[in-house]
Input
Amino acid sequence: MNWSDIGIVLSARKHGEGSAIVSLMTPAHGRHAGLVRGGSGKRARGIYEAGNLVSVEWRARLEDHLGAFTCELLQPQAALYLDDSLRLAGLSSACAVLEMALPEREPHPEIYESLFSFIANLSEDTWLEEYVRWELDLLADLGFGLDLSSCASTGQSDELIYVSPKSGQAVSTNAGEPYKDKLLALPDFLMNGLESAPTIDFNALYLGLNLTGYFMSRHVFIHHKNGEPPARTRLVDRVKQKHTISSR
Amino acid sequence: MTTTEIDRLIQLLSKLPGLGPRSARRAALHLIKNRESLMKPLGLAMEAAAENVQTCSTCGNLDTANPCAICTDVKRDTAKICVVEEVADLWALERTASFNGLYHILGGVLSPLDGVGPDDLTLDSLIARARGDEVTEIILATSATVDGKTTAHYITDRLEDAGVTVSALAHGIPVGGELDYLDDGTLSAAMKERRGI
Output
């Protein structure tokens, strides 16, 4: 058995003395793991950093074997953001979330495309808004999409500022007022697009991460004993910290 | 035919990094052939090291004294602490003789996949040292990997109110490196971090 594809490195775990078990997100084969001989050695370690784009060839005797990867680096995305703590946290979080959320060897070309696009636009100022939207799209792709088109109570499509934690549907200002302590905040940028916010609003971003984090925890992370991946927790902490600093 | 003692020697040697059963067999044979000049001194050296080498309670270095020779060296600059992942990294920096300050060994990097969190590293003692009166700079010499840099950023956050300058090692083109042979990641980072001359 063998196939060739491209893939984004999600994780690399040391195996034995010099090898690594690398998990890739590929367009045609979904999240797929494979053994890379010499993958944790000095020469190859830089290739298998989370977020890097590689061309990959997978070989195995039988289809359900782990198999071995032979990879070549195409785009060293991780190296570009090593000194940018927030972007590095975002990149690590996206990879860790996918590593946890997706079943192995199930093709999800839309999720691959959205991850590729997110990483390609990581240098843009709006990358954090894109991250929140990416998590919303991921939830939708996994079958747990939120309905932000109209109010769950009145049906109106304007003044939507809350999300019901039960139904995942938007709730308008008036309908949500009596229950506002129990509802999740719906940040403005998710409703009105990126153009609505001329400067980075870390409070809105924190609320956005809180919103997607709630549904991620309820539908995705709940199936894992450790819950939310630490990389995502660190991203949320950093955004929260930025919000605290900017609001001083 | 091998005896039980030789089997045991081969088995133990094969547990060393870089040695498999085949190379362990070669090493065992070499030791046996050089019993007086190598095997016995090696055994004594290993016994002495096992008895005397300890972990420095200040920096985490390995030495026969506690605190270690680096921590007690009065000629060293106590205002600077270089943070490294492992003892091997400390040795690498010491070989260059380019740093005359003190060290702090983290004991690894944050790695969720391997189950290594902040509590598994010696972060609390680093922060306590950084708050000391004499310390003015913390140099983060973690690996230029996602995990290494994530750890560095995490430490930077934790040291925010410690009143010290936090710096990190540069990464780019190595001495003697030719652009054509450099990996794309290093080249991209070097281009991004270019500076005026």
